[in-house]
Amino acid sequence: MKTSELINQEEKRQLEEICLIASENHTSPGVRQALGSVLVNKYAEGYPGKRYYAGNKVVDLIEQRAIDLAKKIFGADHANVQPLSGAPANLAVYSAILEPGDTVLGMDLSHGGHLTHGHPVTLPAKLYKFIRYKTTSEGKIDYDQIATLAKKHKPKLILVGYSSYSRDIDYQRVQEIANQVGAITMADISHIAGLVAAKLLNNPVPLFDIITSTTHKTLRGPRGGIIMCKQKWAEQIDKAVFPGLQGGPHQNQIAALTVALEEAQSDNFKTYAEQILENSTALAIALEARDFKLAFNGTENHLMLIDLRNKNVGGLEVQLALEQAGIIANMNVIPDDPAKPTNPSGLRLGTPAITTRGMGEDEVRQIADWLEQIVSNINNVELIADVKKQTKDLALSFPPPLQ
Ligand code: DSN
Fold first, then answer.
1. Which residues pair with 103 in a beta bridge?
2. Of 239, 317, 335, 377, which is most buried, counting CB atoms within 10 Å of its CB?
3. Which is catalytic among the residues 132, 223, 293, 309?
């Protein structure tokens, strides 16, 4: 089969299925056009006005536009738009400001943290000493524990920002703790960048030293990364990205980010971001009404983490059964999960992609019904096939996103 046919198959799959992966979205034709443009042909090591190759007159204008838009939208002193994605962005920050052996205070993975925040299987965990904080039994970040651990371990860096934590963050409190021990502050806003851009969640950018983000989640841009920082860190960060870690930046990706940032300034994007949160709240309410337990006691952002233990099914079984039914979600660990990560006790859901497709609270309640039916009848092949037909009908009743 030709690759083009496989791409068509994937397009069909995305149209026929319901995507509840909290970190995925559907990009606009403008973003995809920029990604597939002739910018893919160009080498541009360096930064606007300081390149190692000729022929970058236009590329410079595009990259500078991305930088200016990011600074304006988030209120940053400085932005680097070259990281190829979130993991390289985080690694670039660590290498810019830390020496091997330095201590970092970051969130425990099972409480919502991220692999790149020092999980033992990653390179940063081999280079730096990561100390873990957690959430309280009420499901909020344990800021008192951060303060205690900060005093005890004197970290060089305090890190916030999560991939399954469903609450907003008190950046002011974290900054105060960091000030007391002389730590640098870093927030990874990959999941929530679009909601921060729309001014619906707290913005760490004016407060914190360094902010990283991917650009393809709620921000609805191309797969990529961005680092924003106070001016005092700008030179170190830029050098760490290039030549420290990367070679030629992907200028087609940077152009696509520029388009996404232009879109993020629009009233339509603000309405979109508001609807993400309305759908998320509606989904959480509908799930709780169906006796689903939510980790972190609910949600204030675009995602929620179901604790499946009262349903006597594992995250893997549910993920697989939902996929059979045309609903795409991912298994996830819950705080201090007693089960293995290969079949954890949680299921993570998010509303950015279905909201892009135009789905609202009625559809969200319908989806909660299907989740309940499938989780209660995990081995019922006929029921799952019946739901599959219904999810396909629902998905296809919405036009292709952002055409
Ligand atoms: N894989 C992304 C997520 O799903 O949260 C983060 O790296």
1. 129
2. 335
3. 223
Return the beta strands (E) in 297-341 as ranges.
Answer: 303-307, 327-328, 330-332
Which CATH number fits the domain that encloses residue 105?
Answer: 3.40.640.10
> Is there a single domain that holds both residue 194 and residue 277?
no
Pocket test for ligand 1, best of 85, 114, 122 (most atoms within 8 A of CB): 114
Q: Which residues pair with 332 in a beta bridge?
A: 346
Q: What is the pLDDT of residues 47-105, one digit of tens each?
A: 999 999 999 999 999 999 999 999 999 999 999 999 999 999 999 999 999 999 999 99
Asked about 53 being catalytic, the answer comes back as no
Residues 251 and 339 grouped into a single domain = no
Residue numbers of the domain that contains 290: 267-397
- Do 177 and 282 reside in the same domain of the chain? no
Give the CATH number, domain containing residue 271. Answer: 3.90.1150.10
Out of 107, 191, 304, 333, give the residue to mutate to test ligand 1, the one with the largest number of ligand atoms within 8 Å of its CB: 191
Atom of ligand 1 nearest to the CA of 86: 7
Ligand 1 centroid, distance to 378 Cα (angstroms): 26
Which of 24, 32, 42, 43 is the catalytic position? 43
* Rg of the chain in Å (alpha carbons): 21
Total structural domains within the chain: 2
List 156, 167, 217, 220, catalytic entry: 217
In this structure, the answer to whether residues 167 and 72 fall within a common structural domain is yes
SS3 307: strand
Amino acid symbol at 376: S
Would residue 43 show up in a list of annotated catalytic residues for this protein? yes
Indicate whether 120 and 211 sit together in one domain. Answer: yes
- 340 and 221, same structural domain? no
| 223 carries an active-site annotation | yes
Positive or negative, the CA dihedral 376, 379, 381, 384 is positive
> Best mutation site among 20, 162, 163, 165 for ligand 1, i.e. most ligand atoms within 8 A of its Cβ?
163
What is the rounded CA–CA span in Å between residue 165 and residue 335? Answer: 10
114 and 227 assigned to the same domain = yes
| 3-class DSSP assignment, residue 135 | strand
Per-residue pLDDT reduced to its tens digit, 23-42: 999 999 999 999 999 999 99
